[in-house]
């Protein structure tokens, strides 16, 4: 879905669609039929996922709580 939190988390490693438009959703799914485009998104997604970890999240939460 094309909402801010998904864009924040996935950056350019995802296809976004209007959640009120089945046609837009179908169009984005059809784009994934292109092997090159799909591989590019997968590569970007795996690289993007490295930015996130339970350890980093825990450390950020600890910092926020400590500074409260």
Account of the protein in words:
- There is one protein chain.
- With 68 residues, the chain is mainly α.
- Helices cover 66% and strands 0% of the residues.
- The protein has 4 helices and no strands.
- The chain has helices spanning 4-10, 22-31, 35-49, 54-66.
- It is elongated.
- The mean pLDDT is 94.
Essential attributes:
68 residues, elongated
Briefly say what this structure is:
The protein is mainly α and 68 residues long. The protein is 66% helix and 0% strand.
Cα(first) to Cα(last) distance is 34 Å
Principal-axes geometry comes out as: elongated
Q: How many DSSP H or I helices?
A: 4
Oligomeric status:
single chain
pLDDT < 50 runs, ≥5 residues: none
Spell the H/E element sequence.
HHHH
- The amount of beta strand, in percent, is under 5%
The biggest sheet amounts to: none
Instruction: Please tell me how large the radius of gyration is.
Output: 16 Å
Structural class per helix/strand content?
mainly alpha
- Count of extended strands: 0
What is the average of the pLDDT values? 94
Estimated helix fraction: 55-70%
């Amino acid at each position: 879905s094309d909402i801010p939190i998904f864009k924040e988390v996935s950056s350019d490693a995802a296809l976004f669609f209007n959640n009120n438009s089945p046609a837009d959703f179908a169009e984005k799914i059809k784009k994934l039929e292109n092997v090159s485009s799909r591989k590019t998104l997968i590569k970007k997604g795996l690289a993007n996922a490295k930015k996130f970890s339970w350890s980093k999240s825990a450390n950020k939460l600890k910092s926020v709580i400590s500074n409260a």
